[in-house]
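#onboarding

Welcome to the new folks! Below is a worked example of what a typical request in this channel looks like: someone posts a single protein sequence, and someone else replies with the predicted structure as tokens. Don't worry about understanding the tokens yet, we'll cover that in week two.

Example request:
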Amino acid sequence: MLYFLGHPVEIVRRARRRTLTIKVQESSLRVLTNQQVKTDQILAFLNSKENWIAKHLNQIKIRQTQFPKPTLQNGSHYPWLGERKYFQFAESKKQKVQFKIEDGFLICYVAQALQSSSTEIQRQLIKFYKTQAMQYLETRVSYWSDVTGLYPNQLQFRSPRSRWGSCSSQKHISLNWKLICQSPALIDYVIVHELCHLQHLNHSTQFWNLVESHLPDYQVIEKVLQDQVYLGNFLDHPK
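Example response:
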């Protein structure tokens, strides 16, 4: 295992890749390269980028402090559509974990004997968030498609760590279901952004003009969204 600045380095090799690329992730570094580049060359490349890597690692640390992962304890705060919901256990006679949003609370209905099963509760929490997110996002895509006149051929839901959405040349839109943690305005921006890619599959002036015609304050919204990239990290599957 290769380490740099105290972080493990994952080396991903692709035969056709011509360049060395570094991706700074929450708990590791990722280097993209080809089969011919040797380990000592990778180390030399990492050393040449030490200041840049250290800067981004520090930014990640700051954001992790700003958005700590909530715990499965009464009174913890869970993000939901831009609001903070208070986590609360409620005793249930059923041998199945269930979640509900009720007013300002995220309530976990669970049998007393299962409250210590944190892994299973976390899995059901993720399932609940994902199910609710898909329903909400589908509704908003339908709304904005009618407004913009832009309709995707296919809508998919995924949870990449560093991407809120994408649009392919086949007019397939993919949305990060962890958007359910963000405010409705931020969610709408991501949806409008990807819908506009159906007309302009680039970030040209024409593309941004189209985005602005639907969301005049998109630049302010985009900045907020970038600052809150770690808000939904608690929805990662337990290992």
